[in-house]
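Tokens in:
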């Protein structure tokens, strides 16, 4: 069966055959289409990469139409049910589930990297008391680049493996220190006898007790939240990680850039915005009016919609079930009733149905985090902790991909044609002319 695309250039009546592989044509094939030999050739134009594959990847598979999400082929609901975050991290980074011995070694490796250089505290103490934790996280990740100059050896597999373990191990500590700084509490050092999620809870919430014992239901819920947020193929922040990494910058500064992208309210910052939105709505009676304002284009319904999922985000389904388990322990978050009513009305309204707008991963996660005692502006940091593993898996895959090189898109130039320099004395007249002000006016 022909696996080629035939294109006819009506300007020249010339025909072109292009191979179709994996459902795509290579954009560079378009450059052969020229009006005359001196032409640059045809570019593909795709603002925000709506229909552009930037890489081949074997890490995460999403079928947006069927609401499918798999890490290295394993369905997300099975991993959420049976796996641990560090086991999923091993799977994402290496491509395979670990044996018991491999998992023990991996866990010991990560755990041995949970401490931060003491100077990090001096750096962190320089932030204002109410500095947003994401601003602290982004800055501290970049600052850690100066502590580990060996991280610049991105071509060395051993160095890459060491930086990956360092970043996965340290990101919860950075997050917890940022939170403790906010509250003026002493920093709690990692307790390496606890699991990944349990240690994070201890660093966040331990006060006077000699040893923090995390609630097992909350610890498991946080593990699952981390698993659900670990990777999501070529999302905005993963694209940034790959792009910065493509210049061979080290993974500390690359992950700082990725975290900066995640901070945006349209990406990982949405979970924080959902809680603010629900508080804005205030009560059940106000939901219809709020939904109407969204339909009038006055605002977005935060936690709804997705570039890829045109069905229910499979992660949101799992989160809804976790919410009930967490609320059993913490007490029901009263905002849940508001969230359920927003979802009920939106899922019946043609505005949302016609645009395939369903709850995404951020719609319910914030309700759970809040019930667990996390402050609203820590929610995106909670997203960044597990997503660090996804960014690193994407970064490493990019470096090992022979087809990849430094990321440098083209553009369609729509600015001025060549024009001569104007001495400053002549510019006022030029400005008046441009603004249509008559000379002497
Ligand atoms: C994450 O990419 C990933 O994988 C991200 C992520 C991951 O794990 O990394 O899944 C995590 O970022 C989830 C998304 C969190 N963001 C939000 O919840 C913010 C609210 N959502 C929207 O801003 C929006 O849905 C996006 C950004 C998520 C997706 O935007 P797209 O793909 O660019 O879609 P679009 O803006 O072109 O919308 C298509 C139409 C438009 O209407 P029309 O112009 O056709 O009339 O749908 C409308 C949009 O106005 N629309 C919404 C809406 N989202 C889209 N209208 C109201 N509320 C919304 N939330």
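Residues out:
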């Amino acid at each position: 069966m022909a696996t080629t695309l035939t294109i006819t250039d009506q300007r020249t009546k010339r025909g072109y055959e292009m191979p179709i592989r994996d459902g795509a044509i290579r954009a560079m094939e378009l450059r052969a289409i020229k009006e005359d030999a001196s032409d640059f050739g045809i570019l593909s134009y795709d603002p925000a990469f709506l229909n552009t594959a930037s890489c081949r990847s074997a890490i995460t598979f999403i079928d947006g139409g069927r609401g499918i999400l798999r890490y290295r082929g394993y369905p997300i609901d099975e991993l959420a049910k049976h796996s641990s975050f560090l086991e999923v991290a091993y799977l994402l980074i290496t491509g395979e589930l670990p044996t018991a011995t491999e998992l023990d070694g991996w866990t010991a490796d990560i755990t041995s990297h949970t401490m931060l250089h003491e100077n990090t505290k001096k750096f962190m103490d320089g932030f204002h008391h109410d500095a947003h934790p994401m601003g602290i996280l982004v800055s501290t990740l970049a600052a850690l680049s100066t502590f580990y100059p060996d991280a610049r050896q991105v071509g060395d597999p051993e160095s890459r493996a060491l930086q990956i373990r360092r970043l996965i191990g340290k990101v919860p500590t950075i997050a917890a220190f940022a939170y403790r700084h906010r509250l003026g509490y002493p920093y709690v050092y990692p307790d390496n006898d606890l699991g990944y999620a349990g240690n994070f809870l201890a660093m966040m919430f331990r006060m006077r007790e000699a040893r923090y014992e995390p609630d097992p239901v909350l610890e498991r819920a946080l593990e699952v939240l981390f698993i659900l947020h670990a990777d999501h193929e070529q999302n905005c922040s993963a694209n940034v990680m790959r792009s910065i990494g493509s210049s061979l910058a080290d993974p500390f500064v690359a992950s700082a850039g990725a975290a900066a992208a995640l901070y945006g309210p349209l990406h990982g910052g949405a979970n924080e915005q959902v809680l603010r939105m629900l508080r804005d709505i205030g009560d059940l009676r106000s939901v219809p009016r709020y939904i109407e304002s969204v339909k009038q284009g006055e605002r977005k319904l935060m936690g709804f919609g997705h570039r890829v999922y045109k069905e229910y985000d499979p992660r949101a389904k799992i989160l809804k079930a976790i919410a009930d388990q967490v609320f059993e322990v913490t007490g029901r978050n009263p905002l849940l009733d508001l969230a359920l009513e927003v979802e009920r009305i939106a899922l019946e309204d043609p505005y949302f149905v016609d645009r395939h707008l369903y709850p995404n991963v951020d719609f319910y996660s914030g309700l759970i985090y809040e019930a667990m005692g996390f402050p609203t502006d820590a929610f995106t940091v909670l997203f960044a902790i597990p997503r660090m593993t996804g960014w690193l898996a994407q970064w490493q895959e990019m470096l090992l991909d022979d087809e990849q090189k430094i990321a440098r898109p083209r553009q369609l130039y729509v600015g001025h044609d060549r024009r001569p320099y104007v001495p400053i004395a002549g510019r006022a007249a030029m400005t008046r002319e441009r603004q249509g002000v008559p000379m002497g006016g």
